Amino acid sequence: MKKTFISLIAFIIGVQFAQSQNYQIEQIDNPVDWVNPLMGTDSNPGLSNGNTYPVIAMPWGMNFWTPQTGNMGHGWAYTYNANKIKGFKQTHQPSPWMNDYGQFSIMPITGKLRFKQEERESWFSHKAEIATPYYYSVYLADHDITTEITPTERAARFRFTFPENDESYIIVDAFDRGSYVKIIPQERKIIGYTTRNSGGVPDNFKNYFVIIFDTDFEISNTFSEAELTNTLESTSKHAGAAIGFTTKKGQIVNAKVASSFISFEQAEINLEEIGDSDFNQLKEKGKAIWNKELSRIEIEGATANQIGTFYSCLYRSLLFPRKFFEFNKEGGIVHYSPYNGEVRKGYMFTDTGFWDTFRSLFPFLNLMYPELSAQMQEGLSNAYDESGWLPEWASPGLRNIMVGNNSASVVSDAYLKNGNLYKYDIENLYDALIHGANNEGPMTAVGRAGAPSYIKLGYVPFDIGLNETAARTLEYAYDDFAIYQLAKALKKPKKEIELYKKRSLNYKNLYDSEYKLMRGKDSKGDFRTPFSPFDWGGDFTEGNSLHYSWSVFHDVQGLIDLMGGEEEFVSQLDTVFSLPPVFGDKYYGGVIHEIREMQIANMGQYAHGNQPIQHMPYLYNYAGVPWKSQYWVRETMDRMYNPNADGYCGDEDNGQTSAWYVFSAMGFYPVAPATDQYVIGTPLFKKTTIHLENGKKIIINAPKNNRINRYINTMTFNGKSYSKNWLSHKELMKGAEIDFDMIDEPNKNRGINKEDFPYSLSNE
């Protein structure tokens, strides 16, 4: 009887838990309250659940702040399983793999003066930690101090609550590899600069900072390397400062901090962003800013997990590329050039890799933030003027990583979507695209590595001293398509237009009919032998042929034709999900984290944790089986994301993997940027209201939506029956109301006709 009673209780608890997981919340008032900045922080170099850190910042802020659990200069600045904090760091890090630049930290301590990171660190607990986009607080147990941070775009306020102690200090660490500090006691001020970076900077790079306190300094020391001195100024490989006070229990010490890449004077100007706001006022301003941006997309009828995941992903979609410009004393827009070291007028943005973000992050900005997108295009035009090239991975200047020439997509999609709304030098940008498309750059990740061979042969062969050549070819072909689209819009000469249209079909040169997959070739036209579709790397980038063979964003119909028709195409798509997650890792000499993330996901060969294949579930729409897209898109949303520290299934990558979720949850996705279309998946919520920048609204109704009802039965667009598998950007920007009738079994009669399929170049 006792066992039966216990079993009954367990059953009831289980039912209640299941119901709580499926309980839908109808209205969200403060979406920022649902954001978890710790989502994705439970990561390490061998397994990424996001490889994120808690970004305490304003949207696209020039400066971010984060608690620092890792050692100085380590890419994994904050990891969820760490239990000690070494400081609170101003950071510009786009990812742990790219590491950081312009970094320094602030750390309060009590007791004996210790300034080395391993001596000053303190135990902390997530139970005594509050992390929001606009506010961070944590209790430092070893020092009995609570530290709080609230930021602006280029400045921040700190609030330290001290215990009663005769030895209370604040350490300012300007980090190693060349730094400077100066204490100015009569002004309660510390100034300094840091030069620590991970590359991509000119020789004169410095991040200048100024910190102003509201409490007199009783002790003022600087340190140089491992030596503490009584001087007020230090220039060395590793400089820092320590100021001290006698504090009463609960005494608050406030600090205002700002920085500049231009000068100390400009840092003081940036400090004015705080104005007269005290800590709480600035915190509330920050909360209002985040709520305003997050409320641009309202969702109704979602579970708590879905809400937390959606708004955490939306938060990550509003961080990069960061603003790298400042406002001078006249209010003019200026920037330090990370390309030539000069101070120039105009916009500059940085810290993004187009190989990742051309896919959905930049299309998201073009949909939701066209004015900001235009400013980013101005910044790219400036980057071309200052470096002679468009960046493909900027942090803050040119970095030599990843493949492709995807600036072509970023530039073309922005102009094709919104170019008539804003004035910027699109002709200069077009010249930059043509230059990059036909020349090898100063490094393999700039311009097009293998460009002479690509132009001559129609592909990049693997026997010319380059790796990842099949990936390069496929991306170059799509990039040529983006140039073709822009050339048409700008009414370029017919011969030029036709050239890039022809080159955009170069993907066909690597198609192997035996395997029905893409395969590397040598300069004689022979396929690589031996060949395994499971081998990662080699001719491909962070993936294998099963992942990259779908990288024909602009001409899926052409790929279908190569494969022998829709039935064979669908079979190949199905195979990706049904094959076991076997792999070959000989190219890397071991299992890289992207491989491991595919292996453990239990989705076959589908590797959502990395970008090359993220669009693949949507491709069923091009072959008359849209219900399979609906199944796999929902499956990916449900299984690969959650709002917790292990919330991603691979690197988050500057908003790309987050923007995939945001788009997919709304019900559509930009498979082929530089076209007018979004491909329909399956909406996640009962209602989504998208507030466009032009004042129009897109309202998406799916009242029957739930965990089981993932399939579209019927659909209307502005009240009219709609059978197409895509939506037009142009029509959406006019405002729209879309109604979905969702059911639990696929409707195999909707979206099956050729006229319903999304755009393909072969159908022009």
UniProtKB/TrEMBL annotation:
Keywords: Calcium, Hydrolase, Signal. GO terms for cellular component: cytosol. Residues 34-260 form the Glycosyl hydrolase family 92 N-terminal domain. Residues 1-18 form the signal peptide. Its cofactor is Ca(2+). Residues 266-742 form the Glycosyl hydrolase family domain. Transmembrane segments: none annotated. It comes from the Bacteria. It holds the Pfam family Glyco_hydro_92N. SUPFAM superfamilies: Six-hairpin glycosidases. One of its GO terms (molecular function) is peptide-N4-(N-acetyl-beta-glucosaminyl)asparagine amidase activity. Monomer. This is Glycoside hydrolase family 92 protein. It comes from Maribacter polysiphoniae.
